[in-house]
Fold this protein.
Amino acid sequence: MSFNFREKLQSPAIKQAIVVLVTIVALFPAVTSLILSVNQPQVQSNLQLYQIDLNLQASETPATLDGGDPDDFRSLQASLLGEDPLATAEKQYETTLATARKSLEKLQKTENRRSIVRRRGDPLYDQINFVQEVELKLGTIEAELGKTEEAEKIWRKIIDNADKELYKPSTVKSALLLEGLYDDPPRVLPNAAKRIERNFRGWFRDTALERLYSSENRPEALEALRQERGERAIKALQTLLLISLLPILCALVGIALLIALLVQFFLRKDRSLLYLGENQAWETPWDAYTIWLVLVVGFFFAGQIVLPVLFGGLWALLSIDAGSFSLSYKAIYIVISYLALTIAGLSVLYLALAPFRPLPNGWFRFRWWGRWPLWGIGGYFVALPLVIVVSLINQRLWQGQGGSNPLLTLALESRDTVALVCFAFTATIAAPFFEEILFRGFLLPSLTRYFPVWGAIGLSSLVFALAHQSLSEVLPLTVLGCVLGFVYTRSKNLLSSMLIHGLWNGGTLLSLYLLGSSAG
């Protein structure tokens, strides 16, 4: 009796066992990341602090306005910043600090302290230092409000904390420096100016330098600093106008478009742009097994298992510690790893659909002529108010928890040209190209074999959101995915959803860059 191995593999029972095993292995890292993200802080806290710091910078009064009216400038400041920006900043910092402490308590309960790595990237180490950074800045705000005793308590707590071996050394040195500058009489530490320039940014750097120059009785340096602060206030106000008013204007356009589309839907029903009928579905010749093969093997198994093992083996072979990469090298690594995932995913997609070629009409359509730019730009405007509203609700639900895309933090803090170019390429070109082919080009149409069109759009959007592995982003990304899916379904052109995706990521990246660079 001969044993036919190939025949055994074709057995339904064996095939089903392989499917279950590969699914468990492929999805385990993704599910684990989702579960762990529950206790991880959102990048939103960082974004809010950068916005507050920018507000403080913009609150300074310039010495000259190059012909502008000082009263108009102060009126604009009051409109954007409120009557007392410093008191507002105090409240916002206290709120952020309370949320950050809750996140730290949850992390301390779940993390094994012995496994903490004393470098950026370890969740507990990062959160401890984030809390101390917020406390450090809150102390400066309290001191500038005249609450010197409260400020000194904050700084002394940082200095005396029993866990200070987990702090960044600069945090403790900065607390010592500030404590001395606000003492009576002031105590100036050696190399204070260099430490301030190195460890502080924006309004906090300028405030510490002003205190230092006053303590050292350096009127010329003080006058030059005040001149610079005024110039930076003008630039900060311009940046605030751009990052605050531009999204609002775009969202208003989106609301107007939504109202017009809803009116058209109620008046014209099945002849309206919002109507989704079964005639919008695709002819799908493959079954659920092919969907599983592409999604689980081509995306999750390749991205969560194969590529990490290959890159990990390469780093081990070359004796390279990838965790110690500079920001530029991290950005380059992100581009390379994402391109590798794209090649792997599209290769599996190509091989999985090979038996069904030629594909039915309408699959993976790229048409350079037509109305796809209108669909893309219109979809972007409509997505803005929808995602903004859902994000506001989402913030109330998660209270600063649920994790975020780590790329956002890197982009926010990046001032390296190479890193910024890499982030821009990944976010605006590579990600829209690959993810739209996979989730809108393949998954959504495939699901119309089993679900109505609106159900396929919703389910594919949920999978798209979960694939980003941050629970706090699931709701907003599902809504965004629905807009992407709807636009692709109606336009039957992947370029339209790619344009929305690229504009969305590009707008986010631009906002992060403006916030990060303006806080310098």
Notes: The first helix runs from residue 5 to 9. The CA atoms of residues 196 and 469 lie 38 Å apart. The mean pLDDT is 83.
